[in-house]
Structures are given as structure tokens and as C-alpha cells.
Amino acid sequence: MAKKTVASLQSSSKRLTKAIKMVKSPKSGAYTFHESVMAPEAVNEWLSK
Predict the structure, then answer these.
(1) What is the C-alpha separation between 17 and 2, in angstroms, rounded?
(2) Residues near 40 by Cβ (< 8 Å), separated by ≥ 6?
């Protein structure tokens, strides 16, 4: 399960997007969230990993 945030961030004339991925731990079964700020073009590739 993955969730892409709606808000986009701008810094030094570069568009960046903050993506949040929900990952289930195989050991405990609990969900954790992994956040990353990246270019909008790289979001789909990062979420598919």
C-alpha cells in the first residue's frame, strides 16, 4: 500500500514532491511509514520498489 501526498515542495527553483510509503514489517506485522523528498518524475519508481 502506498500513498502519494498532494502537497509539493519548492526549493531553489526546483520542484520536489514528498512521497510516503506504508511498509508492513515481515517480522512483527506492524506497518511503518517511509518518507522521501524527490523529483516528481521519480515518485512512481520509488513507490513500486
Answers:
(1) 14
(2) 8, 15, 16, 17
